Amino acid sequence: MTPKYKRILLKLSGESLMGDKNFGWDPEVLTRYARDVKGMVELGIEVAIVIGGGNIYRGMNEAETGIERAHGDYMGMLATVINGMAIQAALEKEGVFTRLQSAIKMEQIAEPYIRRRAMRHLEKNRVVIFGAGTGNPYFTTDTAGSLRAIEIKADVILKGTRVDGIYTADPEKDPTATKYETITFAECMAKNLKVMDMTAFALCMENKLPIIVFDMNKPGNLLKVLMGEKIGTLVQ
């Protein structure tokens, strides 16, 4: 079978890297994700990755942390670079060629984000990891993922989460919640479903970039999504 998508952006939360731990990352999770990504590359799919930083630092709540929002957001951006380096190391251990690009200059460990260079890396079958969000405070890594996906002309955003799609309510709290197979951007906004933050969502809607929300932790799911199987929820 031929993959349905040629170029994808994989959006992962920092928390997904923790596994059963309370902080940082689980080496087994990193290895599993790296092998999943390697499988995509071997199929000829061009892969870009954006990872959050919530497993290391969440600076959203100024009242709790005592750190002003903008300052905290920069701290969070640095956390995403640490996660980017971790997934880069895991990928390279599996023999995958990678490039880490950062929206904040840090020449010793990452290339600066340059759109055309990122696209050239993808064409050469290198996995490109985008770190440091958009480089600006007040924007989430969801927004960074949407922005980068549009810039590199990705076919789809694959949002890997702990649940297998979008539900009418939080399935971890409400046992009566039912899953959407497909849903429109307009419906998500009308029902206030927390797929991504609104800035990220608006970018995808305006640029007609579909999002697939799926359970990244179920083995084989990623490959099934790429082959066009009905896994998770498609937002279009």
What are its keywords?
236 residues, alpha/beta, Carbamate kinase, nine-stranded mixed beta sheet, two-stranded antiparallel ribbon, 8 helices
Short structural summary:
This protein has helices at 27-42, 62-65, 69-93, 115-123, 141-151, 185-190, 198-206, 221-226, and strands at residues 7-12, 46-51, 98-102, 111-112, 127-131, 156-161, 166-167, 179-180, 182-183, 211-215, 233-235. It is α/β, with parallel strands linked by helices.
Overview of this protein structure:
The chain has 236 residues and is α/β, with parallel strands linked by helices. It has one domain (7-235): Acetylglutamate kinase-like (Carbamate kinase, 3-Layer(aba) Sandwich). The chain contains 8 helices and 11 strands. The strands form 2 sheets. A 9-stranded mixed sheet has the order 4-3-5-2-1-6-10-11-9, with helices on both faces. A two-stranded antiparallel ribbon has the order 7-8. Helix 1 links the parallel strand 1 and strand 2 (46-51). The longest helix has 25 residues, at 69-93.
Kindly state the percentage of residues in helix: 25-40%
CATH class, please? Alpha Beta
Count of helices?
Answer: 8
Low-pLDDT windows of residues? none
Q: Please tell me how large the radius of gyration is.
A: 17 Å
β-strand percent reads: 15-25%
Strand segment tally? 11
Shape: globular
Kindly report how far apart the N and C termini lie. Answer: 24 Å
CATH superfamily label: Acetylglutamate kinase-like
- Please tell me the overall pLDDT: 91
Q: Per CATH, what is the topology?
A: Carbamate kinase
What assembly state would you assign to the polypeptide chains in this entry? single chain
Helix and strand string, N-terminal first? EHEHHEEHEHEEEEHHEHE
**Which architecture per CATH?**
3-Layer(aba) Sandwich
The helix/strand class is alpha/beta
Largest beta-sheet details: 9 strands, mixed
Spatial arrangement of strands, main beta sheet: 4-3-5-2-1-6-10-11-9
